Amino acid sequence: MPVPLLSGKVYIVGFGLKRHNGTMAAALIPLFPLEVVVFPRTALPLHIFEERYKKMVTEAIAGASEFGVVLAKANGIVNAGCTVTVEKLVQTYADGRMDILTRGHRRFEVGALDQELEILRAEVRYFDDDDFTPVPAELRQQAIAYFVEMSKLESPRGRGEADLSDPQISFQLAQDLPDLDFLHSLLRQRSEAGRLRELNQYLSRYVPRQQRIEKVKSIAPTNGFAGKHPGH
Q1: SS3 letters for the chain?
Q2: CA torsion sign, 157 to 160 to 166 to 171?
Q3: Angle at alpha carbon of residue 54, lines to 49 and 58, rounded to 5°
Q4: Which DSSP symbol is given to 191?
Q5: Which end of the chain has fewer beta carbons closer than 10 Å to its terminal beta carbon, N or C?
Q6: pLDDT, tens digit (0-9, with 9 covering 90-100), for 88-119
């Protein structure tokens, strides 16, 4: 499970991406910097052990409120994230640690940071897609085809099952990919058709590469001597 990162002064890493105007008024929310990207309506299991985050999660459960998950980098946090709500308190431990299941809710852009409290907070503006051009059927079908091939790989799925009925299906199909910077770019993308094009381009390289890697791994144990070397 992802664990919290960063201590001391935190900075926003922009990645040179253009900032959009938010579609809703600014709100101040607690942030949880992690080495993970979560999308709307996708699951994210978390193990909570730091006192400040135990308090944050406890308040979120009590108030049925959201907190923001942002990708942590070596020198700060990225400039966009997604809120999550606690869907289930899976387990609590004697020392106060807890395992929870959260689910992504709303995307946001990070504005001013508030570092006065022990929990990092930020003024954020929520956004959603603003390009409602119908998604070509072939884009969706190609992405699903790649996803089916990817699901056959031995690499375990860590987030849960994909909901193929989601109108923003790109989020469901991409949630388990390992390239966090790529996932962050998808999170910021405001067009489902645009996300699917980027996802198909990525998967057209990723899936065959992983298939070759797994094929090599399956063959490797049969090469060379299976038992003791001759003369021993």
Answers
A1: CCCCCCCCCCCEECCCCCCCCCCCCCEEEEEEEECCCCCCCCEEEEEECCHHHHHHHHHHHHHCCCEEEEEEECCEEEEEEEEEEEEEEEEECCCCCEEEEEEEEEEEEEEEEECCCCCCEEEEEEECCCECCCCCHHHHHHHHHHHHHHHCCCCCCCCCCCCCCCCCHHHHHHCCCCCHHHHHHHHHCCEHHHHHHHHHHHHHHHHHHHHHHHHHHHHHHHCCCCCCCCCC
A2: negative
A3: 145
A4: B
A5: C
A6: 999 999 999 999 999 999 999 999 899 888 99
- Report whether 131 contacts 193 (CB < 8 A): yes
Whole-structure pTM value: 0.84
Domain ranges in the chain?
Answer: 12-127, 137-220
Fold of 12-127: 2.30.130
Encode pLDDT of 115-165 as tens digits. 888 999 999 999 999 998 899 999 999 999 999 999 888 765 666 789 999
- Cα–Cα separations (whole angstroms), residue 176 to 2, 17, 74, 135, 151: 13, 23, 22, 22, 10
Q: Encoding tokens for residue 79?
A: 């400039």
CA distance 68 to 108: 8
Go through the chain and tell me how many residues it has.
232
Q: Tokens representing 44?
A: 């994210």
Distance between CA 187 and CA 134 in Å, rounded?
A: 19
Residue 206: which residues within 8 A CB-CB, separation 6 or more? 150, 177
